[in-house]
Design a protein that fits this description.
5-stranded antiparallel sheet, OB fold (Dihydrolipoamide Acetyltransferase, E2P), alpha+beta, disordered C terminus, N Utilization Substance Protein A, Chain:P, domain 4, 4-stranded mixed sheet, GMP Synthetase, Chain A, domain 3, 4 domains, 12 helices
């Protein structure tokens, strides 16, 4: 058992673990081994001897009164000794003092060595898994990339990410996508779990709005630097998405920076999303104005917000010309669905008979010829 601390340092360096946690795991392994090969009812401590760089196994026995009830409990009695018996070893001992008895695992032969090896292997492996779990738990919602290692009969895709394997379920894959072994793909970490039988389980997603946000940060330096923020994001995977952007710098156009020159940045993101169309919208805290922007490409006349006790039931009544209704709804209702997802309002459309000037984006009402005639007579009379 000599220089066990040197072994601990080597394991910590090799596996990228913290030294104090490795030493704690080794102490636990020594205690469990002592309980297994000496006596499970004894109370043991594993103490570090820095001079010899070894771990000592110490049996601790607490001194109690002669009539203490714990001495009669067979399960815990070995951890206690009456004061009369204790004073046969040390006549200066007092109540609640602890007697210490050294044990050497070497004295228990190959059985102790084999048991210690298994315990160390088990506790170090648990430590490695805990470190990996915490590492990937902190990456929930973040973009990762890896290589496809297997696609099973249910079209679940298994991806190797660094030192661990993750799964991309078919339901979290964009419609029409097909992957083969050896493909390198990007995805977002959707969920990280721990199972006693299967260990760490990491679930990936390419349909989450967070995946789109991660791709935008990868492609647009202004988003990565924080000069442009993705305030909100809504997707119908593989078809269309709407992204609400806001600039934190007065000289940066959030939408322009994200789209890029001739759309090169947004087209690159769209290509990764299997051709998904992406609408970039400038975010505003004014709900009426924000809703009107999310209804693009439709040009609307008026927005009325109706609040309810439950925020999920808040309604936005949108008045718009009849020739804009189909644009507002979109193919299979996709535009209005995304607008509702992005704003959080239930949207209701009401048509009017006004026409919209595309150049000025203002409502132009039909002329009232009778009223014009009356105004002309008044002008003539007053003259």
């Amino acid at each position: 058992m000599e220089k066990i601390l040197d072994i601990a340092e080597a394991m910590a360096h090799e596996k990228g673990l913290q030294l104090d946690k490795v030493i704690e795991a080794l102490q636990t392994a020594f205690i469990q081994t002592a309980k297994r090969v000496i006596d499970n009812k004894f109370a043991f401590e594993a103490q570090i001897d820095k001079k010899t760089k070894s771990i000592k196994i110490i049996q601790t026995i607490t001194v109690v009164a002669n009539d203490d009830e714990r001495l009669l409990n067979a399960d815990i009695a070995p951890a206690y000794i009456s004061i009369n018996d204790a004073r046969e070893y040390d006549d200066q001992v007092e109540l609640d003092d602890q007697l210490h008895i050294d044990h050497k695992l070497e004295d228990y032969g190959r059985t102790a060595a084999a048991s210690l090896h298994r315990e160390i292997e088990y506790h170090i492996q648990r430590l490695v898994e805990d470190e990996l779990f915490n590492k990937y738990k902190s990456k929930t919602g973040n973009l990762v990339s890896g290589r496809v290692t297997r696609v099973d009969s249910h079209n679940n895709t298994y991806v190797e990410i660094d030192e661990i394997r993750a799964i991309l379920p078919m339901k979290s894959r964009i419609k029409g996508e097909k992957f083969q072994v050896g493909d390198h793909i990007k995805a977002v970490v959707r969920r990280v779990g721990m199972d006693k039988e299967n260990g760490i389980q990491i679930e990936l997603s390419r349909t989450s709005p967070k995946f789109l946000e991660g791709l935008l940060a990868l492609e647009v330096p202004e988003i990565a630097d924080g000069a442009v923020l993705v305030e909100r994001c809504a997707r119908i995977p593989g078809e269309r998405a709407k992204v609400a952007l806001i600039s934190t710098h007065p000289q940066i156009d959030a939408v322009g920076a994200t789209v890029g020159v001739k759309g090169v940045r947004i087209n690159s993101v769209s290509k990764e999303l299997n051709g998904e169309n992406i609408d970039c919208i400038e975010y505003t805290s004014i709900p009426e104005l924000f809703i009107s922007r999310t209804m693009s490409p439709a040009i609307i006349s008026h927005v009325e917000i109706i609040k309810s006790k439950n925020a999920e039931n808040d309604k936005a009544i949108i008045t718009l010309p009849s020739d804009q209704k189909s644009k507002a709804i979109g193919k299979s209702g996709i535009n209005i669905r995304l607008a509702s997802m992005l704003t959080g309002f239930n949207i209701e459309l009401i048509e009017n008979d006004s026409k919209v000037s595309k150049d000025t984006n203002e409502i132009t009402k039909p002329k009232d010829s009778a009223k014009d005639s009356v105004d002309a007579l008044h002008a003539l009379f007053n003259s």
